[in-house]
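Progress narrative, Year 2. Work on Prostamide/prostaglandin F synthase from Nicotiana tabacum advanced from sequence curation to structure prediction during this period.
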Amino acid sequence: MATMTSLQSLTLAKLRSLSSPTSTTFKFLDPFPSSSPSASSFSATASIFSPIRPTKPKQISNFVTKASSTAAFPQNIGDVLADVSIFTATGQSVKFEDLWDQNEGVAVVALLRHFGCPCCWELAKALKESRERFESAGVKLIAVGIGAPSKARILAERLPFPLDCLYADPDRRAYDVLGLYYGFGRTFFNPASAKVLSRFKELQEATKNYTIEATPDDRSGVLQQGGMFLFKGKQLLYAWKDEGTGDHAPMEDIFDVCCKVPVV
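Result:
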């Protein structure tokens, strides 16, 4: 417990060296506020991290070496991902190959962190507000998060977010295939996490109905980072790995790529 509390203190010190927001701002950087993003302590964070065994992290692939680079992926990454099974928010098993047309269909695949991450609620809200723009460009929106389908439904109901776009990957299978970052360092100590401070108002708005109950039961999932990918069929057009918590892909960059893809 003392070790976890110390880690939280070190995290805040690191972020304060990057900028000087109010103490209230930093409460939003805690992935586990005790009741809501406006909570006044980090007590729940320490208790939630106690079951995690960082000495045995989940194995991940090394397909990606740099955010926003598609060249680092093998040419058959679409085939590999297509065979990965996840769950709909209502609990049905589904493969990625069934989520969009694997020949000419265009899809934005957003891999959130976990359903109890406030920064992911902020990203989910931005995605929901962009859905109409995606669809007008012939692009299907797919959002995946870590946790059981029941956790996905909490986010969908309280944010809210459309269930038909939301999927659960409790075993982080897609995250492993895509080589997304994992670990304490990426979650708490990466300077890129400070980007969320520029979106403080958006974060407040997105987490009005936030609840920690959306956090996955398998606490090891909270150390996983997300990413954003754009596919045409099985061809990877755009790739982004979150360097740290809240380090989301620029939405305008994704729209720029979408606009260059001919709609079929």
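The beta strands are 85-88, 93-95, 106-114, 139-146, 166-168, 227-232, 235-241. Confidence is low (pLDDT under 50) at residues 1-67.
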